[in-house]
Design a protein that fits this description.
Blueprint lengths: L22 E3 L21 E3 L21 E3 L7 E2 L11 E3 L7 E2 L12 E3 L20 E3 L19 E3 L21 E3 L21 E3 L7 E2 L12 E3 L7 E2 L12 E3 L7 E2 L12 E3 L7 E2 L12 E3 L21 E3 L7 E2 L12 E3 L7 E2 L12 E3 L7 H10 L4 E3 L9
Parallel strand pairs: 1-2, 2-3, 3-5, 4-6, 5-7, 7-8, 8-9, 9-10, 10-11, 11-13, 12-14, 13-15, 15-17, 16-18, 17-19, 19-20, 20-22, 21-23, 22-24, 24-25
Keywords: Leucine-rich repeat, Repeat, Signal
InterPro entries: Dev_Immune_Receptor (IPR050328), Leu-rich_rpt (IPR001611), Leu-rich_rpt_typical-subtyp (IPR003591), LRR_dom_sf (IPR032675)
Length: 414
């Protein structure tokens, strides 16, 4: 085993005579430099791991003789730049360069990686990458997380790209043509950036996109047809923004959406029209907003909804009726609202509801049929309310088949 040692130096002839070697693992050593011909005899090598060393630069063409190399891991080194001829290899499929000190990559650095499919560049100091990826037409996965990128690089020629991750950067604007040519993209990560506004039809070039993560930005409002063209989108995360208003038709075109996270925003009102274009939702998270107005029929179109989270809002409501039409509901979170008099959870039967959280809701009175019409109810969180011990014990006795959870117990997970 050569991995996880204290190897500081590798000689040019260290691997001579190993022409049949398939894998070489040199990770977790202290190698600072590599002779230019050190791998010249390893024509059969398919996997080379140099992760977690102290490499600061690469000799030109050092990997050119590795004619069967498919995976190269240079992650967690001290590389500062990638030159034009540093990475020449005809069959390389997967390249790891994450967690280095990269601040510059030559625009033709990946031009001779004709088979490259996966490229990992997260955790560097990259700012400008305008034309770096123009010649990597085979690329399917591109990870640029945790850099200092302000502007999306030119990716128009990456027709095979399926996953693009730009989380934790400094992107403050998305242009109408940023995603042009990426017809096969399935996952797009843009969480923890500086985005303030999303234009109408911004994502129209991404017909196959299934996951879009825009959490932890500064988006204020959603305009009409923001997500038009994303007919295959399944999951949309807009949590931890500054969204106050959900414009009419802002979710138009999202007929396949099953998960929507709008938690930790500043939304104040929910009407039936708010979600009329996404009636197929299975999970809807509206926790930690400023919602004070909830129309009686706001959720009646959700025939498939299983999880609804309204935790920590400003709701002052009589629950009875608001959730009657969500017949498939499994989990309902109402913690941290103002209910006070809890007459009945629902007027009509919710046959599949298993978990209900009404803790910290200022409840000081419950009706005699409070959990009636909930034949499948298994778990209730009812802590931090104002029922005295006698009333609470009577409630537990009345619904002996229901487990009342305290704050130390994990809630029911869908």
């Amino acid at each position: 085993m050569l991995a996880d040692n204290t190897i500081r130096k590798v000689d040019a002839n260290s691997f001579n005579g190993l022409d049949s070697l398939l894998e070489l693992n040199l990770q977790e050593n202290k190698i600072r430099e590599l002779p230019s011909e050190v791998f010249s005899q390893l024509a059969s090598l398919t996997n080379l791991n140099l992760k977690s060393n102290k490499l600061k630069n690469l000799p030109n063409g050092i990997f050119i003789d590795l004619l069967n190399l498919e995976k190269l891991d240079l992650g967690s080194n001290q590389l500062e730049e990638i030159g034009k001829d540093d990475l020449i290899n005809p069959k390389l499929i997967e390249l790891h360069l994450e967690s280095n000190d990269l601040h510059a990559i030559h625009e033709n650095a990946f031009g001779e990686l004709r088979a490259l499919q996966k490229l990992y560049l997260s955790g560097n100091n990259l700012v400008e990458l305008e034309n770096v990826f123009e010649e990597v037409h085979t690329l399917e996965v591109l990870d640029l997380d945790c850099n200092k990128i302000k502007k999306l690089p030119n990716l128009k020629r990456l027709a095979n790209l399926k996953q693009l991750s730009l989380n934790e950067n400094f992107v403050d604007e998305l242009r109408q043509d940023d995603f042009e040519g990426m017809d096969n993209l399935i996952l797009l990560g843009l969480k923890v950036n500086k985005l303030k506004h999303l234009d109408s039809n911004l994502f129209r070039h991404l017909p196959l996109l299934r996951v879009l993560d825009l959490a932890s930005n500064n988006v204020n409002d959603l305009v009409t047809e923001t997500f038009q063209g994303l007919q295959e989108l399944r999951a949309l995360d807009l949590s931890k923004n500054n969204i106050r208003k959900l414009g009419e038709g802002c979710f138009k075109g999202l007929e396949s959406l099953t998960m929507l996270n709008l938690g930790s925003n500043r939304i104040t009102e929910i009407t039936k029209e708010t979600f009329e274009d996404i009636s197929g939702l299975i999970s809807l998270l509206l926790n930690d907003n400023k919602i004070h107005k909830l129309n009686q029929n706001a959720f009646e179109q959700f025939e498939r909804l299983k999880l609804l989270n309204l935790t920590n809002n400003d709701l002052m409501l009589k629950i009875d009726g608001h959730f009657d039409k969500i017949k498939n509901l499994r989990c309902l979170y109402l913690r941290g609202n103002y209910i006070r008099h809890l007459e009945k959870i629902c007027g009509e039967e919710l046959p599949y509801l298993k978990f209900l959280d009404i803790s910290d809701c200022n409840v000081d009175e419950v009706g005699p049929e409070v959990f009636n019409n909930l034949p499948g109810l298994c778990f209730v969180k009812f802590t931090s309310n104002y029922l005295d011990q006698k009333e609470l014990m009577a409630l537990k006795d009345q619904y002996g088949n229901v487990t009342f959870l305290d704050d130390t117990q994990l809630p029911y997970v869908l």
